[in-house]
Write a structure and sequence with these properties.
Strand 3, helix 4 (94-107) and strand 4 (111-117) form a beta-alpha-beta unit. It is elongated and about 125 Å long. Helix 5 (136-149) packs parallel to helix 7 (175-182), helix 23 (436-451) packs parallel to helix 25 and helix 32 runs parallel beside helix 35 (635-651). Mean pLDDT is 88; it is low at 207-216. The protein contains 46 helices and seven strands. The chain has six domains: 2-130, Rossmann fold (3-Layer(aba) Sandwich), CATH 3.40.50; 136-220; 228-302, Winged helix-like DNA-binding domain superfamily/Winged helix DNA-binding domain (Arc Repressor Mutant, subunit A, Orthogonal Bundle), CATH 1.10.10.10; 311-492, Alpha Horseshoe (Serine Threonine Protein Phosphatase 5, Tetratricopeptide repeat); 590-802, Serine Threonine Protein Phosphatase 5, Tetratricopeptide repeat; 813-872, Orthogonal Bundle (Arc Repressor Mutant, subunit A), CATH 1.10.10. The termini are far apart. With 879 residues, the chain is mainly alpha-helical. Helices cover 68% and strands 4% of the residues. One of its GO terms (molecular function) is DNA binding.
Amino acid sequence: MQILENRLITLTGPGGNGKTRLAIKAGRALLGSFEHGVWFIDLTGVLRDSGVAGAVSRVLGILEEAGTALSQTIARQLENRSILLVLDNCEQVLAGSADFSAAVLANSPHVKIVATSREPLRIRGELVSQIPPLSIDDGENLFYERGLQSGGVFSNGYSESTVIRTIVKQLDCVPLAIELAAARSPMMDPEQILAGLDRRFDLLNGGVRDASARSRSLRASVVWSYDLMSPEEKAMARRLSVLRGFTLEAATAIGGGTAPLDQLQRLVEMSIVQVDRSGPQRRYRFLETVREYLLEQLVENGEVLPARSAHLAHFIDFSEFRAEHLILGDGPILMAQIQTEFDNLEDALIFAESLSDPSALLRLLTALTGYYEIWGQHQHGMRWFDTSLARTRAPDVLVARAYWGASHVSAYGGRMDLAFPRAMRALELAREIDDPWTESRALDIIGFAQAVSDPKGARESLSRCIELGRQINDGWAETHGIKMITVVYLFSHHVAGGSETIQNLLLLADETESRYLRAWGSALKGYFARDAGDFSAARDSLDISIESASYVGDPATGGFAKAWSAALKADNGWVDEARREMQDMMQTATATGTFLAVPETMFQLGLIEVGAGNPQATIEMIGDHTEDLKSAGIPVWAAQLALANASAHIALGKLDEANALLDEAEELAASLDNPLLSGLNFFFRGQLSLAKGDLGAAEGRLHQALEIQRDAALLPGLLRTMEAISSVLIAKEKGEDAARILTFVDQARLEIQLERSSVELARRSSQSYALENLLGISNLEKMQSKAKNADLEEIIGLMSRMRGKRARPLTGWDSLTPTERRVVSLTTAGLSNPQIAERMFIARGTVKVHLSHIYEKLDVASRTQLAAKAVADGFEVVN
């Protein structure tokens, strides 16, 4: 034990934390180590420093000598004795305890002392041991022990244990408080005791009769500590009681006084304030029982308003300082700091709401906008903004900015129906009062809202947002505007524009060390790569996004990345795992803040369920969500759900309902010019016609899907469409053509690792059986052999010729697909194959294949010849 190696140990800590119990336990354990015994001296009743030696002498039986200080007499009597003195409750006679201990230790070499005090004695050779609270387990055991001793009866069930552990936590694991609570067990069950902690000073006032007065009541213990403080220390403690845990910075700003750091140190030494060193930044706090008493004293002294006002002012400054940097490199650290202060920020908001002037409330809420977005606290933030906007006065800068904050949080909460009008109001006010800061940010959200239905208008709004941000050196507006332009390209599935903007966003993420930007940019990069059939690149990018979003604490971006990653797993054949991940995400969306990604998740899962043979599950899952999304002002997601729903109805043979859903999806997405949605719509219309037996219509619709998917380089969708066309050809008894197409599709699927769903596997098996009957096994194998070395363009050319028309000429500029024209543009600009692959979110090998087709169509043999021909022929660069 430490006492055997040190002559003075002082056990410190707040009242009731078990110092006395521990000292007695240590003394008993050491009885055999001291020849002349262990002696316990209770100083509770000693009120003057001069009385300490007298209390010791009475216990030891040492009489006072005339003309000699009693402490010297005791020291001389103990000079040759091996003895341990336990001085209990030294805090109210701290100087006397220190003087006595120093005298004895200096003159009695074999004496050792254990002192208990709420603050150190501060003499030479003292080892201070801060007594920590009990563990939750020990606190629970103490509650049961004292409760049983008091005559309580317990069930020892799990639910009872949970309640008792909650009681222990709420009592800060302080032994005295736990014992006093447990003493109520004969009259109250644990649930009633827990409920009574709201008035803990009334509840916890019945200790054992032979305990000291301050140990029989929790309040008495706290009052004892309070009375030992100087007036300045009391004043600072009262002001700091408005804080729910605090930093040194907050203590300095709110505590007041002429020497706040010195006073805080004294409060720590007196065990009034506890120090928490567990986090990256040292924090301070009161035990809740101490804080409750100090708040009472704050009210009695008429100091609530100045203390709360200082608290509010500090947290406005705290939040505004961090607001501009949340999306940059230090964002996660700043977000963690804000999250740590959540309770303090809520208290500040509540106090600000009570003021007649809403200025402080508007400032604080606006500063917290980014926090509500990134941390997924959208609903919470919207409720506060609703409250603040209901109290706004004549338009000014603060009102305009609050409207922007409200629009921003509403947008990320999936309420475009609220976001757009609020952003428009913010824009109107900003232009009225000439506030470019608000104007740029309002345009950011207006562009976001327009992206779901008006891509051109969205790009114009966001371009102006970025321009204004640069003019006023507002890095947030510029950066977020660039991010939002990528959202426009997402909703319109514009790969060419999106790839370059995403690349710029990722470069910006590297420059600013922003994982927030990297998370979103990588998510989109993975999204487009998956739709292009580059599953390896998609997987890598989505993994980066998920890791970055988790680090930042951005559940919205993380939700999209996880949904697309799960869909990719289904593409690779891991259907059960994909389904489980998506279902878990939707079930926990509200709690985790990922509900903005729920429509996307529902769309992907709906298609997976149809492919797995569970179309009814898709219909039941989607339910009224399509209408909800239309009402919320997000037609693009409503269109996606309508498509998944249509697919399910086709599978169930409900063809009229499916047709109506496809019409609805087409109308909802009409303004977006989205090739992914258009291609799917034609694909499902082809399946619908095939189900009706209308082979001509089916072939026409599927070829329309094929052309869209080919031009947009949507390889997985393209392969599925080719399979569907093969079914039409088989029905028309064109087995040779179908065999060649299916052979190519089988090889392409294998190459990119696109596995078939259970429904697709059954269909493919039926196709093989039908082809064997149509062609015979020998002829089928010949057709398959012919198609083994075919490439995509050759197969699509074959399919076009089968329809009696050629979609494009075989050579010349007009023969190039949009994807090939994009490759020419980037090649002419001097980009290498890896750089082109990076820009277009495709594999390097795919770039090489595209170039070989381009060389053949344009009759050139190298990059140099290609660039020269482009210049000579006036080739129009595609951006």
